[in-house]
Amino acid sequence: MARRALPVGRLASLGATRDFHDRRLAADGRQAAPSLPSVIGQLGSLDFKTRTAAAQTIRRLPPVTAIPALVDAVRGNGDGYVRYQTLVLLSGFGADAANQTMRQALTDKNDRLRAVAYAWFEHHPQPDVTPALVAALTTEQSEFVRPALTRAIAATRDEARVTATLVPLVRRGANFFRSGVMEALGDYGAKSAVPPLVEAAQQDGPLQENAIEALGKIGDASVVSLLGSLKPSVPADVQPSVAAALCQLGVDCEAQTQSIIGTLATAARDDSRARVAEAAAHALAVLAVAGNPPALTALLDQGEAAAEPARSPIALAVGYVALRQPGVMLQAIQARAARPATLALLRDAFDILSDEDFERECFFTDVRRVYWEASEGSAERQTAQAVIAALEF
């Protein structure tokens, strides 16, 4: 579960989103908005197709119609799940539309709303919100919510506050929380976290892999010798993370990448090595996010060819890349001419990540922006359209 921490996000501007909605509305030939109260109510339906269709309808409404209705639903709908879904959809209409409501959601009693609000402020750090985030760290105990809060604090890049509040949590607390803290500190390059991460990296157990991954992301060259000494002795399912970390630190990156690719290729064909295959797939995803094209190509190649049980962890790794670097994923899909096997793998990834509603909405927003910014008939627009069709958003 540690690997499914919330990704680093990117939201399109309200202007770009409005452009998409207005043009799509015109293309559909719609003259009037549907009855919004009924559509919003359908976001709480137990039927997946009904919920999906309602979200599709709302995304395609003019902002002047959708935004007030979504804000009202977040604040006053009697169904807590509908409130959550409307807040997620509101985020796709941009900062001007959502920011004030997100501020209010920081103290909401609904766990899901708080998680979305924390994720929003990870993506949109605002100095005057930081004290409230730090204060919440002492009271927020929800296992579902706390990882998003720690990421929001790490994203402030306020070194003093991060050092005081998050770095000590590397050494204490439940493993689930500690792993999320490690990933957040790694993603946001918190150099002050290196000493406790080094300690954790040298200890056998479930957090060793998280600590090694974070050290690679932070990029402190002082840990190269340590990682090199660990590689021969760590378990087989930790070795891909060591190789990925060394690659990120500039140690024979091509050879490290090829080693991980080879590990995935062999482990994916051996059900008894499922955990090794999962670790290798995740290591390639980390490298792909960091800007390593061969890692992503190999991940897609292996995923398209894999059967279960290997396919699911590879698809999850593909989803990790898509949510953290949507532009990179779109370019990779475009280079593969949006072939059905690639899109099917991406679809599987999003099915696995079905609980990451907010992060998926960020991805959807980015794809819609790419679609409308690309010229008619261009490869970029065709790729975006293929992804929209495959993911049905």
Walk me through the structure:
The protein has 393 residues and is an all-alpha fold. It has a domain at 126-219: Leucine-rich Repeat Variant. It has helices at 14-28, 36-41, 48-59, 63-76, 80-91, 95-105, 111-123, 130-136, 146-155, 159-165, 175-187, 194-201, 208-218, 224-230, 239-248, 253-267, 274-289, 293-305, 311-324, 326-335, 340-352, 357-373, 379-391. The longest helix is centred in the last third of the chain and has 17 residues, at 357-373. The radius of gyration is 21 Å and the shape is globular. The relative contact order is 0.09. Mean pLDDT is 91; it is low at 1-31.
In short:
It is built from 23 helices and no strands.
Q: What is the topological layout?
A:
Layout: H1 14-28, H2 36-41, H3 48-59, H4 63-76, H5 80-91, H6 95-105, H7 111-123, H8 130-136, H9 146-155, H10 159-165, H11 175-187, H12 194-201, H13 208-218, H14 224-230, H15 239-248, H16 253-267, H17 274-289, H18 293-305, H19 311-324, H20 326-335, H21 340-352, H22 357-373, H23 379-391
What would you report as the Rg, rounded to the nearest angstrom? Answer: 21 Å
Large-scale geometry: globular
Q: Low-confidence parts, pLDDT < 50 over ≥5 residues?
A: 1-31
Find the structural class using helix and strand composition.
mainly alpha
CATH class of the domain at 126-219: Mainly Alpha
CATH homology group of the domain at 126-219: Leucine-rich Repeat Variant
Please give the number of β-strands: 0
By DSSP (H or I, 4+ residues per run), the number of helices equals: 23
